[in-house]
Write a structure and sequence with these properties.
The chain is of the alpha/beta class and 439 residues long. The protein folds into two domains: 1-340, ANL, N-terminal domain (Rossmann fold, 3-Layer(aba) Sandwich), CATH 3.40.50; 344-437, 2-Layer Sandwich (GMP Synthetase, Chain A, domain 3). It is built from 13 helices and 21 strands. The strands form six sheets. It has a five-stranded parallel beta sheet with strand order 4-3-5-6-7, sandwiched between helices. It has a four-stranded antiparallel beta sheet with strand order 8-9-14-13. α3 crosses α4 (49-57), α9 (176-185) packs across α10 (195-208) and α12 crosses α13 (395-413). The longest helix has 22 residues, at 26-47. It starts with a helix and ends with a strand.
């Protein structure tokens, strides 16, 4: 059964799941945002010890918010503050927390994010909008290859696909040959996963003599890293995709945006869920439209773990409420998003040197200094780790030590290093180094 027969020639993208919200005018969205902002500020002031303390420290009361620009009166919130004040940030009792997600942290401490049942429903709604916009329907079979566990991304896609009535195959990452068998046997139509895992699947399929474009795949959703235009063309040719879209969000702000079908250099941010700003990364002064700076996120309806002027560390541009030819007036952020900190991604998994350093610090024979190298020229993204010894270690003992470190990093960070080598004390300069080969 071919693609065109199975789906009745569906090729129209940009469909709306929630036409009232997605098709709202700029004026309607701004009025809605102001109401939601005022309500959220009142709520977190009354229910979150952390935010109430922040607001009082700068002499701000909820009644101070008269217009959208007044969001600048609110204090910024850093990731470190959220990491260290989980229970105080909560704006619901612990008994009303339905689930907790966790992400990596640059300080070595994971950032916990709580969702109430209402939050889960909101994320599902936002994801349903995104999937429908990209042409996914109740007839689709969505194969999710992103990591489940404590990370958010796979769950957002899963909840959204369930909401629109699609069949969900929660495979998770890894076991590439099994991914290919599922594509063939269950006739998956949508593949959601890290950009480079898409290429890894293609690489393995080619080695097996499989032509994935002979099957039913028609929509590819890429997360973790933005594919280039040549890469998108390769994905369309290799998988037979009619459409390849980029997914952007974070554990802290799930259900954030949708990749514009017309302006492929932008994501539309759901204005009823998030109010966004861009500021200078150093001074935190507001920047104008089109100026590149740090994305600041305020969640307008998040119930359990709200964000108020959260400094995301993501560097991008912002365009305001302008009617897009795709039919939406929701604000846009640019797809060229960089991290302000030292995080790198290995095969779609975020890796912070401080996390590696924390693990190495548990071994007395190591100094904790390391060098991470990632070769991004290949789909497999071979990663190597060079580690400094604090004392001489016999060759026989190095083999067991190497295996122990590889397993610890794999289990706690989610990445397997292809190569691991030891160097004498004093070889590496600084606390840690990172070298990423990109060309």
């Amino acid at each position: 059964m071919g693609k065109s027969l199975r789906f009745g020639g569906q090729g129209m993208y940009g469909s709306f799941w929630n036409r009232k919200v997605q098709g709202a005018s700029s004026r309607e969205l701004q009025r809605l945002q102001l109401r939601l902002l005022q309500r959220q500020v009142r709520r977190v002031y009354g229910k979150s010890r952390f935010y109430r303390g922040k607001f009082r420290a700068c002499g701000l009361k909820p009644s101070s918010i008269k217009c959208l620009e007044d969001v600048r009166k609110l204090p910024f919130v850093s990731r470190e503050e959220l990491e260290g004040n989980f229970e105080d940030v909560l704006a619901v009792p612990l008994s009303r927390v339905a689930t907790v997600r966790m992400t990596s942290g640059t300080t070595g401490h994971p950032l916990k994010v709580a969702h109430s049942r209402r939050d889960v429903a909101m994320i599902a709604e936002a994801s349903a909008r995104k999937l429908t916009y990209h042409g996914v329907t109740a007839k689709d079979i969505v194969q999710v290859t992103a990591a489940y566990g404590l990370w958010q991304g796979a769950w957002s896609a899963h909840w959204g696909a369930e909401k629109i009535g699609a069949c969900v195959i929660p495979v998770g990452p890894g076991d590439t040959e099994r991914q290919i068998r599922i594509i063939k046997q269950l006739r998956s139509t949508v593949l959601y996963g890290a950009t480079n895992f898409h290429f890894r699947i293609l690489e393995v399929a080619k080695a097996l003599g499989e032509s994935l474009d002979d099957y039913d795949l028609r929509v590819g959703l890429c997360v973790a890293e933005k594919p280039s235009k040549p890469q998108i063309s390769m994905l369309k040719e290799g998988f037979g995709y009619e459409k390849v879209a980029i997914d952007y969000g974070a554990t802290e702000f799930p259900g954030f945006s949708v990749h514009c079908d017309v302006d492929d250099l932008s994501h539309h941010v759901w204005a009823d869920y998030y109010l966004v700003e861009v500021v200078d990364p150093d001074s935190h002064e507001p920047l104008g439209e089109g100026e590149r700076g740090e994305l600041v996120v305020t969640s307008l309806q998040k119930e359990a773990f709200p964000l108020v002027r959260y400094l995301s560390r993501d560097i991008t541009t912002l365009a305001g409420f302008e009617k897009c030819s795709c039919g939406m007036s929701h604000p846009k952020v640019g797809v060229n998003i960089n991290r302000e900190d030292f995080m790198t991604k290995i095969r779609g998994v975020p890796v912070f040197p401080s996390h590696i350093e924390q693990i190495l610090g548990e071994f007395p024979v190591l100094t904790g200094r390391c060098q991470i190298l990632v070769d991004k020229r290949t789909p497999s993204q071979e990663a190597s780790l060079k580690i400094e010894l604090s004392e001489a270690v016999p060759q026989a003992a190095q083999k067991a030590l190497r295996q122990e470190i590889v397993e610890a990093v794999k289990n706690r960070v989610g990445v397997t290093f292809n190569y691991l080598s030891f160097v004498p004390k004093g070889t590496l300069e600084g606390k840690y180094l990172k070298a990423v080969v990109t060309s």
